[in-house]
Specification:
This protein is α/β, with parallel strands linked by helices and 1477 residues long. The protein is 61% helix and 7% strand. It is built from 49 helices and 20 strands. The strands form four sheets. A six-stranded mixed sheet has the order 6-7-8-4-9-10, with helices on both faces. It has a six-stranded mixed sheet with strand order 16-17-18-13-19-20, with helices on both faces. A four-stranded mixed sheet has the order 1-5-2-3, covered by helices on one side. Helix 1 packs parallel to helix 3. The longest helix is centred in the N-terminal third of the chain and has 50 residues.
């Protein structure tokens, strides 16, 4: 067997020389590099894969699949192996290359046998077609074509022809196997999951071309996407799988070591992290191939026609172009696929770790909402920083190879480019030192703003009630201004880095060509230019992305610091009989099993500070009541029984088995679900038990009054309910759980006395539900009239010690505190309980007809798929015309200055090769240098406008609009809108507005003009290229239109899916004590995983269709590049313009992809602006249905209130029926007149409309439409007055005390307007007994932290604020009348005019002594004011001038308290009798 040999066939070549086989590799190169090496590598990789598959179970079924595909594949592998054996036999007769041919055939035989075994196992035991086979088989087919061509050209005799025929047959079998091995197995996979993602069954071809996304794209184009239309997550990306990693990370010891969390995460995710290395290396190869290809192309074009431009060389260049320009986008898609999988796994692991820490941290640690910022903003920035993590190693390698190739082109002159590059890197390194510090400061301010905004939203009703709306809005807005200012400092560092990143690409060619231009050919110039363009572009990426990576490291450190916080540790012990508990508290009268034992217990919230001290007591089954004055530590003792206090000493022992405890906090913890879902919680649905607890808590009556009954959504933090209803739902949840130990912290304070008595008797009394269950009950309360019902009483002193404890008879005889209360004995209480228990036994729950869901309108559906151009107009208006115009102008300038230097370089190179150049070197160099410098200046100016000015203006404007909308929205917004949805506007959406949108807009503007210039330069190669442009740009238009219909919807689904996750985090932080007490931690963790999966699906699939878009655009660029090369090689093209065109094409695909991707990012991220715009436009203001007139400055001067036929509802769409008695009305036909200076108490059971009446006076609730309805104060119609102004003029004390955001001063909290003097502050605080507290915490200028107050102290502080406001108004009126004395003022006797004071159960959280003190302060300070008070403490109402009794929203009785008390059958008398006052 003989072959025709070329001169260097026995060398590696790789190209033959002086041979008839034009454009061919040497035989030795082909056998070793194209056959032996890949086959040996395949064998090495196949062995571990075979061992791995052998340990797995079969997962593929299907008779057709098993019967046809597998036998056919086996037959082909047998044929292939037989052909390899024949090759060995025939190859042994070869005269030339015998060792190589035999070795090659032998290795191929082993590879064929390995392929057969691997194919069988892959078919049966893996979901995907084999990656290894699908890479190896096409590669060997491609190499085989080159070998077969060589064999056909070299065969000389019969033996060589037979060998060629066998090799051709083997190649044919190989190609058939390529098709066979690419068949997917989705239909035959045996899986417990009914629905699997096409991703899980896709092979490498489907992944590289994004074919697996076709169904999703078509679905999104045709219909409105819903979450159920999305692909399920692949198993390894499920949060359930990744949570195990988060658990291992959380369990590791960080010990304060920097970046320990980062190292732990990367180690756990090492395989997903390293997989993209392979595809990034392939990308690197394709990038480096392009300048080498351009050099070969220009060398080919530079040859005279007589010397060659052989057809084979031209065809070879075309083939190489196909491989390079088609392979590059496929490698990029695979790189993106594997890297995005890593990024989303990283996100899931971090979110899971943060949630686990949130659920195990101390109860006080979640108050600043830190974990919400970490899981949203910080994790998002980590993902952003790690997006280009593999560029850190790939780009330096690429730069090294590029500069080596540049050295080969231009010699020592390349050092100019290297010097510029090194200087820029050094400068960038210096700038980078500021990144971490600025990023950390920025994130801290973002966290602070989000935390304060969330708190404000949660307490909006009380904030508005107190007249603090404007002050709160101003404080949060100032936080936003400071946050953006610090953010711009960080962006300034990024701007400097961006300028440094562009510098090498713009200035390096200038310095390089100064020294080398005289000696370079056209081919060398444009090859060098392409290399410098490639190096400059990659260096630009490296320098620009480095700050984001540095910032992500700072975010990692913030998360690590959070995870390093001390975990909640349950310090309670299980009761052990062997433990010596010799120190006994006072003996109990009834011998029974002890549930809780406390010995020498001291508990607090800060290290070294104890609120409850030296407590020793036994708590046994039955009712134990804990009472005492304000700030005595009752709530702290409750939390200590749960093991929640961080600071503790002594011993707390629980009886064995009490791991689940029913707990009701002082502030009811409710999630935004239906009433029934809040009550049944996480337990099984037991209808009998459910009805039982409804009866016990008197909720069955409330449900009859609600249109949707128990399907009514409670709103965020129960905003749709009254305070009493929220507490009773929390009590019902505790009763429903049937726990042996039940702890209730002041849960009766928000109830009217009648309802309170009913609830107490039915739940806690001797015949109550809990007593019938033989449960242990701990009830903290100020309602001392219930003490006779307790089996044990614990009285805490103001110092936090036990003042006295024992049974009620014992303490009434021997105690001091209980004896001094004068509470009736057990007999009268029993009679009262018996009377109360028989009342209100209405059975059943109204079964409402659930209203059908409102379908999405056609207009909204169209907007969801095609976008809303008005959103762009809204966004551009927020930027401003001057700024936008400058942005566009600089973009045009950048486009021109970016591309024209290539054309100028072409003219310069041609002139330099002339014998007599038309211009000297200074002429060409000065203009080229000017273009480069102007280009750098223009780009820097454009980026500075986009990143600094646009981000600042839009960030402030959109945030201000959204904040104003929230602060002026009616209360029904907070009862009908999920808190997480509103929170996401100020966290996720603001993050997009600050970061992604300005950058996307910047990229679109700059790249659009750069692409136009690049297209013009490319068209200069041949006029035929112009013919392709209309088709290319038409294709781009239709592609982006097809793509955007799906991407917009996925972006909206992504934004919508994150809101429930944020809400769940907020709920967990708010109710962590309740969650742990009920033992719901695992279930809340499970729900977090479900919500996390739901939020990842749309985001991941959006990233994947962005890869699809990049692939399609890359293929369009490939078509353009191949067309240019075909025209250049087949026609006589100018080498200079061809070089300039190919240099443009190197980055043309990236620019084109950048335009569409960033425009898509602009389109999809504009969804954040759309949500902000829609929220601002769709949310009505309080004054939208009425006036916004400001009353006279002295209003209200007397407090004359008149209501005529007023009905009102929280439902904006409700209207009264003809008789004015619509079922949804909260108030119905109210007629009431309150005279100036009159003191009026509003009474009634919970849910009767008392608080609604006060909200009506404060313009927080508007009257229903009606010609005969009116509400006026001092003759001013309330519907025509601005609500904010009205609340600032009327002094009101809410049921729940509120403050300005933590960190504001005591002075600002007392007087947001800054009108009061320090003297007024001091006297007011002394009046409420808090001056000493304030001075101990930094004085009036000290920072106020609400959690430092007890609940009672909070109410006293709010009363102090009211006193300050009253005195400031009095001083202002005296100043107007010029009656202010020269020395001090007796405010107690100074009238200063009248006014209106509104009190809503303001003393519900204080003890009787403090309550009496507060009444004295109000009577003294506001004796000339009209006072309207809602109170459940009926004894306090006896000092009022008039009582108004409400029931079901109607005034059913009014008159003098004593007269009403004597009225037989009267409502007030019934309330009085119900509580035994």
């Amino acid at each position: 067997m003989r072959f025709h040999s070329c001169e260097n066939d026995n060398s590696f070549g790789p190209v033959v020389q002086h041979c008839s086989r034009h454009f061919d590799f040497t035989v030795k190169f082909q056998i070793i590099i194209l056959n032996i090496l890949p086959s040996a590598l395949f064998i090495v990789l196949a062995i571990p894969r075979l061992l791995h598959l052998a340990r797995k179970s079969p997962i593929v079924s299907g008779s057709w699949f098993q019967a046809l595909k597998l036998p056919f594949a086996k037959a082909l592998f047998v044929i292939l192996a037989s052909l390899q054996v024949a090759s060995i036999i025939i190859g042994a007769t070869a005269v030339q290359y015998r060792p190589l041919i035999v070795a090659s055939a032998a290795v191929s035989l082993v590879a064929s046998l390995s392929m057969g075994m691997l194919s069988f196992l892959e078919h049966a035991r893996d979901t995907r077609p084999s990656f290894l086979l699908n890479i190896y088989l096409p590669l060997m087919s491609l190499f085989g074509i080159a070998r077969i061509r060589t064999l056909f050209l070299s065969s000389l005799d019969h033996g060589s022809m037979v060998f060629t025929a066998i090799s051709t047959a083997a190649l044919s079998v190989n190609m058939v196997l390529v098709l066979l091995e690419s068949i997917q197995k989705g239909l035959w996979i045996m899986s417990p999951s009914q629905k699997k993602s096409p991703e899980e069954t896709s092979g490498i071809y489907s992944l590289a071309t994004c074919a697996w996304l076709a169904k999703l794209l078509l679905t999104g184009y045709r219909i409105i996407l819903q979450p159920q239309h999305l692909y399920p997550l692949e198993q390894s990306m499920n949060a359930e799988s990744l949570e195990k990693i988060a658990v291992r990370i959380a369990a590791s010891e960080f010990c304060g070591r920097p970046h320990k969390l980062l190292r732990s995460v990367l180690w756990e995710l090492r395989i997903p992290f390293l997989l993209p290395v392979i595809t990034r290396a392939a990308q690197l190869g394709f990038d480096l191939a392009q300048p080498l290809f351009i050099q070969s192309l220009l060398n080919h074009l530079s040859q005279p026609v007589v010397a060659g431009r052989s057809a084979s060389s031209g065809y070879g260049l075309i083939g190489a172009a196909v491989l390079i320009y088609v392979g590059a986008p496929m490698a990029a898609v695979l790189q993106s696929y594997f890297h995005q999988r890593f990024l989303f796994k990283l996100r899931s692991v971090l979110v899971c770790a943060i949630f686990q820490k949130t659920s195990t941290t101390n109860a006080t640690a979640g108050d600043d909402k830190r974990s919400l910022t970490l899981m949203s903003t910080d994790v998002q920035r980590i993902v952003l920083g790690f997006t280009s993590i593999h560029d850190l190693w790939a780009i330096p390698i690429q730069l090294g190879v590029t500069y080596y190739l540049l050295f080969r082109q231009i010699g020592p002159s390349f050092t100019a480019s290297v010097v510029v590059t090194l200087l820029c890197i050094l400068a960038s390194s210096s700038v980078m030192r500021f990144v971490t510090r600025l990023q950390k400061r920025w994130m801290e301010h973002v966290q602070m703003r989000i935390s304060k905004t969330v708190n404000a939203i949660a307490n909006m009703k009380s904030i508005k009630f107190s007249g603090l709306g404007d002050a709160t809005q101003k404080e949060i807005h100032n936080m936003r201004i400071k946050e953006i200012s610090i953010g711009n400092q960080f962006r300034g560092v990024l701007l400097a880095n961006i300028a440094l990143g562009f510098t090498p690409g713009q200035l390096a060619p200038m310095f390089t060509f100064v020294t080398a231009m005289r000696h370079l050919s056209v081919s060398a110039i444009f090859t060098s230019m392409s290399l410098m363009a490639l190096a400059g572009g990659k260096l630009n990426i490296l320098i620009q992305k480095a700050p984001y990576l540095e910032a992500s490291l700072a975010c990692f450190q913030r998360i690590q610091e959070f995870l390093e916080q001390q975990d909640w540790r349950d310090f309670r012990e299980r009761l052990d009989p062997a433990v010596d508990l010799s120190r006994k508290p006072e003996p109990r009268s009834n011998a029974c099993n002890t549930t809780i034992k406390i010995r020498d217990g001291s508990f607090g919230w800060e290290e070294g500070t104890y609120i409850v001290k030296n407590v020793s007591t036994d708590i046994e089954p039955g009712l134990t009541i804990v009472t005492g004055p304000v700030a005595s530590g009752k709530s702290t003792l409750c939390k200590a029984l749960l093991g929640e206090t961080p600071t503790h000493q002594g011993q707390v022992s629980l009886s064995i088995g009490h791991s689940k405890i029913a707990f009701c906090d002082q502030t009811a913890f409710l999630v935004n679900a239906t009433i029934k879902e809040n009550i049944t919680g996480e337990g099984a649905d037991d209808e009998g038990r459910y009805q039982e607890v409804l009866q016990a808590t008197m909720l069955h009556i409330d449900l009859l009054l609600l249109p949707l009954g128990d399907k009514t959504l409670v709103g965020s933090n129960g905003a749709a309910l009254s305070g009493g209803q929220k507490q009773r739902i929390a009590i019902a949840r505790a009763l429903y759980e049937c726990c042996p130990l039940n702890i209730f912290d002041d849960v009766l304070s928000g109830l009217d006395k009648d309802t309170e008595q009913q609830v107490f008797s039915r739940c806690f009394g001797p015949n109550g539900l809990l007593q019938r269950r033989d449960a242990t009950i701990v009830l903290c309360t100020h309602a001392v009239r219930h003490l006779p019902s307790a089996s044990h009483i614990i009285v805490l002193s103001p110092e936090g010690t036990i003042a006295e404890q024992g049974t009620f008879p014992h303490l009434r005889r021997n105690g001091i505190y209980v004896q001094g209360l004068g509470v009736a004995g057990q007999d009268s209480v029993n009679a009262l309980l018996d009377n109360g228990t028989s009342r209100g036994t209405t059975s059943g729950v109204i079964k409402p007809t659930q209203p059908s869901a409102t379908t999405t309108t056609d207009a909204k559906e169209k907007t969801r798929t095609t976008g809303d151009r008005k959103v762009f107009v809204h966004y551009f208006r927020s930027i401003g015309i001057p700024c936008l115009s400058l942005l566009v102008f600089l973009g045009v300038l950048c486009g021109f200055l970016w591309d024209f230097p290539n054309v100028w370089l072409k003219f310069w190179s041609e002139d330099s090769t002339l014998t007599v150049p038309s211009h000297g070197l200074p002429y060409w160099l000065e203009i080229y240098s000017a273009l480069a410098i102007l280009s750098l200046i223009a780009i820097t100016a454009e980026v500075s406008i986009g990143m600094l000015a646009v981000a600042k203006v839009t960030g402030l404007k959109l945030h201000s609009d959204a904040l104003r909308t929230v602060m002026t929205a009616p209360l029904r917004l907070f009862s009908t809108t999920d808190m997480g949805a509103i929170t996401s506007l100020f966290s996720q959406d603001m993050s997009l507005v600050d970061e992604e949108l300005p950058v996307a807009l910047l990229e679109v503007v700059i790249m659009s003009w750069i692409v136009i210039g690049a297209a013009a330069v490319t068209a200069a190669v041949s006029s035929y290229v112009l013919i392709a442009y209309p088709f290319i740009f038409a294709s781009i238009y239709f592609i982006q239109r097809f793509y955007l219909r799906t991407s917009r919807q996925l972006r909206l689904l992504d934004l919508e899916a994150k809101s429930p996750l944020y809400t769940h985090f907020l709920d967990t932080m708010t109710g962590i004590s309740t969650i742990r007490a009920f033992g719901w931690s695992k279930k809340y963790t499970s729900l977090n995983l479900t919500l996390l999966n739901a939020s990842i699906k749309p985001d991941f699939q959006l990233r994947m269709i962005q890869s699809w878009l990049s692939f399609i655009l890359g293929m369009l660029v490939a078509v353009l590049a191949i067309a240019v090369i075909i025209l250049a090689t087949q026609l006589k093209a100018d080498a200079g313009f061809t070089g300039a065109g190919m240099v443009s094409i190197i980055n043309f695909g990236g620019y084109l992809s950048s335009i569409v991707v960033n425009y898509t990012l602009l389109e999809t991220s504009i969804g954040a602006v759309n949500r902000l715009k829609t929220f601002s436009e769709a949310t009505p203001t309080e004054d939208s249905a009425s006036g916004d007139r400001a009353p006279p400055p002295s209003w209200p001067s007397s407090g004359h209130v008149v209501m005529r036929g007023v009905s009102a509802s929280y439902d904006n769409h409700s209207e009264p029926s003809r008789n004015g008695m619509h079922s949804k009305m909260t108030l119905k036909d109210v007629n009431l007149e309150i005279m100036p200076g009159e003191k009026v108490a509003i009474c009634g059971r919970t849910g009767s409309g008392k608080s609604s009446l006060l909200l009506l006076l404060l313009r927080l609730l508007n009257p229903a439409p009606g010609a005969d309805q009116s509400v006026s104060i001092d003759g001013e119609c309330m519907t025509s007055i601005d609500g904010n102004v009205a609340r600032q003029r009327i002094i009101a004390l809410p049921q729940e005390a509120v403050f300005l955001p933590d960190g504001t001063s005591f002075r600002m909290n007392l007087d947001p307007d800054g009108s009061a003097s320090d003297e007024v502050f001091q006297e007011s605080l002394e009046a409420v007994g808090l001056w000493t507290f304030v001075t101990e915490h930094g004085g009036l200028s000290g920072e106020l932290t609400a959690d430092e107050f007890s609940h009672g102290q909070k109410q006293l502080f709010v009363l102090g604020r009211a006193v300050v406001r009253r005195r400031v108004r009095a001083l202002a009126r005296l100043a107007d009348m010029r009656e202010r004395p020269s020395e001090g003022i007796d405010f107690a006797n100074c009238t200063g005019g009248g006014g209106l004071l509104i009190l809503d159960e303001y003393s519900s959280n204080v003890d009787a002594e403090t309550d009496e003190r507060m009444h004295d302060i109000i009577g003294r300070e506001f004796k000339h004011y009209t006072v309207v008070m809602v109170s459940h403490r009926l004894e306090a109402t006896m000092a009022f001038d008039r009582i108004v009794v409400l029931d079901a929203g109607q005034v059913v009785e009014q008159g003098d308290p004593k007269t009403l008390l004597e009225k037989e059958g009267g409502r007030f008398r019934g309330l009085w009798a119900a509580v035994g006052s």
